[in-house]
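Sequence design from tokenized structure. All designs in this work follow the same two-part layout: the structure record, then the generated sequence. An example of the structure record is given first.
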């Protein structure tokens, strides 16, 4: 029986340290296949290794004496540079396979690997055991990103489309081109475009590598404008600015991009950047939360750049929104025990722990109640306009993230799932209460079964409860204390509680019924999602 290769997906927002993380892994002298979901490999990968051998310009290299390969998520690269290394009746050519996600994606790669059924990537998917989604969080910019009102499409454009346009024959008399102040344009066919990120931001967000890797990177990038953050395309400089044949390289990249765009047009597919910009009408914080919630391991990176209390706050935040996640703390994305990344994810039973913390205007709290909600009061708390399903901005405008399960007094059989993420809200069916099920329908994990049994025996209404994780930004009009106070007023009063479940169901009206998805709608949505994933 063939042994599957341990694999992980690495994700993280801009400047989180994904490229630095890759450099650190490669110091372990293991045989890696590293596959990047990008058009070209990051500069720190392309030019960060002295022994790197170019397999295909900008998109595929091998290093470490040929034992490691880095390439982009492209059919040709996976076929030629990864799959061809597998030989029948021979041991696997790789110890680990690592997929590195685009900075503007969360679970896309993991979902793709789980459902793709044809082509080279599908073949590779049959050879791996995808163990974890590893998310890197930049401690130095996390709270800024969470509080940011900037939309993802605006951030995308500021990172990738702040460009200078230069022509190979437009050098000034001092030989300078690709200069940050260059504003001239050209309409001739020789014009090339160089991406020019904001220099101050690049310098602030870039993270030095280990001394050895840093020296290697510096020797290749000396004199260039390239920052060591691999999450954005960099400015290229002219020969007399420190990099050889930059304009020719840039022309080649532009021609490759044009060819790829033409191919995509022919097959009626949008470019990846078009898709990212198109769906980017959500705040930056929504993507950060998506990345954190889908991860099984979260690396709090750059802990040396912030105070210890901020690291602890971020640790509490990620555990609040993703209770079963493993949290690692690193400087320079250095994980001391690599095996931690490739271990089987474990399911833990999280008993209620009160959480109530604040940092730089951001608050986190865990709302826990074994008293049911009055459905009408809760509905008015969430919606300002019941007919239009318009969110109540007075109560929820300060909420960045809210997620959990709610017990409504009108339903003793199941709870309801309630989610708010940066303006997006969803109220839908949750899970059946275990106390209404037979024991053979409970989860098989002994620790989980013990927890369920304890709840059922210990509390009056057994395992019925509401648990909501909340992350918000305080303002003069809405503080953490005020939000919790208003939410608590939606619970049954002592007098209402004394009526009992039968009276609750017959007396109270549940307005959520009108907005809950019908089964036919859910099936149709699932089919549409599956069809869209297949087309992509």
């Amino acid at each position: 029986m063939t042994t599957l290769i341990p694999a992980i997906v690495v994700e993280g927002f801009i400047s989180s340290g994904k490229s630095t993380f890759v450099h650190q892994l490669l110091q372990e002298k293991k045989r890696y296949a590293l596959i990047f979901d990008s058009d070209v490999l990051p500069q720190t990968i392309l030019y960060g290794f002295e022994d790197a051998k170019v397999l295909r310009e900008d998109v595929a290299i091998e290093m470490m004496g040929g034992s490691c390969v880095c390439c982009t998520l492209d059919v040709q690269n996976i076929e030629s540079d990864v799959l061809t290394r597998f030989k029948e009746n021979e041991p696997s050519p790789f110890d680990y396979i690592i997929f590195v996600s685009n900075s503007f994606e969360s679970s896309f790669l993991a979902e793709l690997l789980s459902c793709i059924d044809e082509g080279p990537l599908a073949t590779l998917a049959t050879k791996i055991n995808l163990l974890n989604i590893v998310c890197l969080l930049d401690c130095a910019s996390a709270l800024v990103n969470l509080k940011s009102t900037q939309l993802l499409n605006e951030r995308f454009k500021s990172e990738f489309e702040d460009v200078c346009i230069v022509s190979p024959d437009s050098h000034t008399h001092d030989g300078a081109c690709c200069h940050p102040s260059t504003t001239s344009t050209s309409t001739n066919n020789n014009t090339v475009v160089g991406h020019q990120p904001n220099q101050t931001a690049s310098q602030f967000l870039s993270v030095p590598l280990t001394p050895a890797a840093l020296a290697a990177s510096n020797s290749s990038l000396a004199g260039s404008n390239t920052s060591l953050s691999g999450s954005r395309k960099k400015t290229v400089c002219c020969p007399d600015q420190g990099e050889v044949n930059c304009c020719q390289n840039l022309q080649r990249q532009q021609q490759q991009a044009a060819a790829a765009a033409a191919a995509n047009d022919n097959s009626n597919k949008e470019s990846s950047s078009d898709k990212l910009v198109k769906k980017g009408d959500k705040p930056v914080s929504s993507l950060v939360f998506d990345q954190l919630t889908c991860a099984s391991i979260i690396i709090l990176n750059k802990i040396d750049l912030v105070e210890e209390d901020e690291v602890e706050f971020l640790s509490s935040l990620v555990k609040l929104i993703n209770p079963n996640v493993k949290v690692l703390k690193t400087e320079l994305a250095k994980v001391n025990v690599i095996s931690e990344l490739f271990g089987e994810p474990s399911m833990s039973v999280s008993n209620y722990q009160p959480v109530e913390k604040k940092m730089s205007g951001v608050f986190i709290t865990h709302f826990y109640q074994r008293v049911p909600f009055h459905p009408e009061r809760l509905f008015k708390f969430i919606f300002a306009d019941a007919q239009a399903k318009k969110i109540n901005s007075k109560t929820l405008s300060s909420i960045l993230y809210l997620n959990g399960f709610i017990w409504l007094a009108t339903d003793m059989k199941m709870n309801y799932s309630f989610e708010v993420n940066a303006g997006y809200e969803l109220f839908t069916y949750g899970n059946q209460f275990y106390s209404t099920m037979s024991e053979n329908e409970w989860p098989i994990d002994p620790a989980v079964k013990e927890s369920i049994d304890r709840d059922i025996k210990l509390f009056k209404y057994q395992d019925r409860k509401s648990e909501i994780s909340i992350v918000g930004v305080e303002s003069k009009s809405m503080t953490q204390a005020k939000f919790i106070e208003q939410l608590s007023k939606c619970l049954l009063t002592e007098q209402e509680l004394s009526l009992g479940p039968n009276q609750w169901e017959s007396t109270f009206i549940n307005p959520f019924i009108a907005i809950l998805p019908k089964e036919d709608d859910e099936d149709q949505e699932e089919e549409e999602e599956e069809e869209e994933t297949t087309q992509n």
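The longest strand covers residues 128-138. We note this feature because it recurs in several other targets discussed in the main text.
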